[in-house]
């Protein structure tokens, strides 16, 4: 493969560099005595393939297979110069190969980082999806609970109290018709009308309060929906970006997968750190959602308490009205008894004088 070719080329360039850095006298002695040193043999075999336009010191063509080094000083110097030229060429080649390997390693590192980011984005997407479902569930529960309590507690109790008051008023009216005269009956009717108007006013106030509670619940629900929609849009954007990045990186991942193995081992710790960071961000989001849910619950609890206060106020007002109606009925019965003569009224009593001589 390409990687193994580069590795072998670098090894060979290193060998040539070491040979060229050796002392000239050692090389001359090796040529003169014709020792079969392994490094010398490797370089000798390689020099057979060097240069197309060069000539040997004896005038032979470069394409001719060189003979063994001659045992003289002139041949040794030429061989040394030739070795040095080949070493310079191999130094340049080694430098280019190192630069290319560095570029490939950098590309593999970037590719591994992109893969790690893609995995982290996928985990964040799953977490946001779970959070969105939890938000939707909480919003539905809050809306349903608030509506049911607002309607059932406020309206039902108010209707029951009003119905009970109407029944008692009708009963008192029937008793007044049988026991009192027309004036007392008319006065009682006027008083009943006032009471009914008061009850109607209180009922309208309760309705307005319930309507305000309903609007508050709708506002909270809409705010929760907006937050959920924002999270959903952010999730969609992250998903789309991850898909585009995946499509762009697939070919590069396939091309450099073998080279990236070593770099991937070094980058695993960075992947773990990114995953830990994303988990921490997810925990922060969960805490914010919990705070929002707690705020919604607190507001719902406050609305419940307000409804309870309104209901208690309605009960107290109803009790006051009941007492006033009872006093009025007692006064009517007393007046009727005075008129029938069942009760003797002293002449000094101003009230008895008024009852004895009514004004029409």
Quick overview:
Helices cover 86% and strands 0% of the residues. The protein is an all-alpha fold. The chain has 2 domains: 2-104, no CATH class; 106-356.
Average pLDDT for all residues: 67
Number of strands: 0
Class from helix and strand fractions: mainly alpha
Report how far apart the termini are: 124 Å
Describe the structure in your own words.
This protein is mainly α. The chain folds into 2 domains: 2-104, no CATH class; 106-356. 86% of the residues lie in helices and 0% in strands. The protein has helices at 2-20, 24-33, 38-47, 73-179, 182-255, 260-340, 350-356. The longest helix is centred in the middle third of the chain and has 107 residues, at 73-179. It starts with a helix and ends with a helix. Residues 80-182 form a coiled coil. Residues 1-22 form the signal peptide. Keywords: Coiled coil, Signal.
Search tags:
86% helix, single chain, rod-shaped, 2 domains, 360 residues, 7 helices
List the helices and strands and how they pair.
Blueprint (H helix, E strand, L loop, with lengths): L1 H19 L3 H10 L4 H10 L25 H107 L2 H74 L4 H81 L9 H7 L4
Helix pairs in contact: 1-4, 2-4, 4-5, 4-6, 5-6
């Amino acid at each position: 493969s390409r990687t193994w070719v580069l590795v072998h080329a670098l090894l060979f360039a290193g060998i040539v560099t070491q040979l060229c850095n050796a002392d000239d006298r050692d090389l001359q002695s090796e040529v003169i005595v014709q020792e079969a040193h392994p490094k010398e043999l490797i370089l000798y075999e390689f020099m057979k393939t060097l240069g197309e336009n060069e000539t040997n010191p004896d005038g032979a063509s470069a394409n001719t297979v060189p003979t063994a080094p001659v045992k003289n000083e002139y041949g040794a110097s030429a061989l040394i110069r030739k070795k040095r030229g080949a070493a310079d060429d191999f130094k340049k080649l080694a430098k280019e190969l190192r630069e290319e390997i560095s570029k490939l390693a950098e590309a593999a590192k970037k590719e591994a980082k992109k893969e790690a980011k893609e995995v982290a984005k996928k985990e964040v997407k799953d977490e946001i999806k779970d959070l969105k479902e939890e938000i939707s569930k909480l919003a539905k529960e809050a809306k349903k609970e608030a509506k049911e309590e607002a309607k059932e507690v406020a309206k039902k109790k108010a209707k029951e109290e009003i119905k009970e008051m109407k029944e008692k008023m009708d009963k008192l009216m029937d008793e007044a018709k049988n026991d009192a005269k027309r004036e007392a009956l008319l006065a009682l009717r006027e008083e009943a009308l006032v009471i009914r108007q008061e009850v109607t006013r209180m009922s309208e106030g309760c309705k307005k309060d319930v309507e305000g509670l309903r609007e508050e619940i709708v506002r909270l629900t809409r705010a929760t929906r907006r937050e959920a929609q924002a999270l959903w849009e952010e999730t969609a954007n992250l998903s789309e970006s991850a898909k585009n990045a995946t499509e762009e990186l697939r070919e590069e991942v396939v091309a450099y997968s073998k080279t990236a193995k070593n770099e991937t081992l070094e980058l695993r710790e960075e992947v773990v750190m990114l995953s830990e960071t994303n988990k921490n961000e997810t925990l922060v989001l969960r805490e914010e959602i919990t705070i929002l849910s707690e705020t919604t619950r607190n507001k719902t609890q406050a609305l419940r308490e307000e409804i309870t206060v309104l209901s208690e106020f309605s009960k107290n007002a109803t009790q006051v009205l009941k007492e006033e109606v009872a006093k009025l009925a007692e006064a009517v019965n007393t007046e009727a008894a005075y008129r029938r003569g069942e009760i003797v009224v002293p002449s000094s009593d101003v009230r008895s004088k008024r009852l004895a001589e009514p004004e029409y």
